[in-house]
Design brief:
The chain is an alpha+beta fold. Helix content is 42%, strand content 12%. Helix 1 packs across helix 7 and helix 2 packs across helix 7. The longest helix has 20 residues. The radius of gyration is 19 Å and the shape is globular.
Length: 240
């Protein structure tokens, strides 16, 4: 394949609009249609996502794509572990995704998105049973037709995890470009042992996260949630 010329790499307004639309329309979708996603579509979006940068081109990502019975079986095993208090207590994350000490503004944003979602679903603060049931839907990949499990080799260090984040973002944006939606899910990390056993992962592989993927069910009220973002002035400092 020949290297693109400068002219071929020119970005038009249409290109900019298309990329911006994919970025701006990406949301965490928590209800999906049962419509299957074609295998060639999945392979295409993963091939595009693999153009993510990585230090010295190490490409530390590994993806396990589940559909049909394998997807259903994994979801059922994890959900059963989550809903059994004794079983759930025996599972712990291998790495700390969230801070052990929460502080503002992060705790405020966390609380707001949680209560915004529960409010849409009509779940009150004292309704622990419905909260648990809603959280359990994570483990069924929110009924998406595709579940993605992402793993990394244990020898890879922090820089590779940063690279991995860029790959995950690429997966989500490539999905939007194909009319698909996603929900990245750190909820799976607590049950890495169930995933390792079910998928027969080699001991050198470590769970990063899961992701639901499919066609959004826009009749579901939870999919109307649009989270807020800080304005540029809130997180960027320009040095002129």
């Amino acid at each position: 394949m020949s290297t693109p010329t400068v002219q071929e790499r020119q970005v038009t307004a249409d290109h900019t609009a298309a990329v911006d639309a994919a970025l701006m329309s990406r949301r965490s979708i928590r209800a999906y249609l049962p419509t299957p996603v074609p295998r060639d579509t999945l392979e295409s979006l993963l091939a595009v996502a693999a153009r993510a940068p990585s230090g010295t081109n190490t490409q530390p990502w590994q993806v396990h794509v589940l559909t049909g019975e394998p997807l259903k079986a994994l979801g059922q095993r994890i959900e059963a572990a989550y809903l059994d208090p004794a079983h759930r207590a025996s599972h712990a994350e291998e790495y700390a995704y969230y801070p052990t000490e929460w502080r503002s503004p992060y705790i405020d944003r966390r609380r707001k998105v949680g209560w915004d979602l529960y409010s849409l679903l009509g779940i009150t603060k004292d309704d622990k049973a419905r909260m648990q049931a809603q959280h359990a839907r994570n483990y069924r990949f929110f009924d998406a037709p595709v579940g993605l499990i992402f793993t990394i080799d244990r020898v890879m260090k922090q820089g590779s995890w940063l690279d991995y984040g860029m790959f995950l973002q690429n997966v989500m944006i490539a999905a939007r470009a194909r009319g698909l939606d996603t929900c990245p899910q750190a909820a799976f990390t607590q049950f890495h042992q169930v995933i390792e056993e079910t998928l027969q992962l080699p001991p050198e592989q470590m769970l990063v996260c899961g992701m639901a993927l499919g066609y959004a069910d826009m009749s579901a009220v939870e999919n109307t949630l649009v989270t807020e973002r800080e304005p540029v002035s809130g997180f960027a400092r320009f040095w002129d």
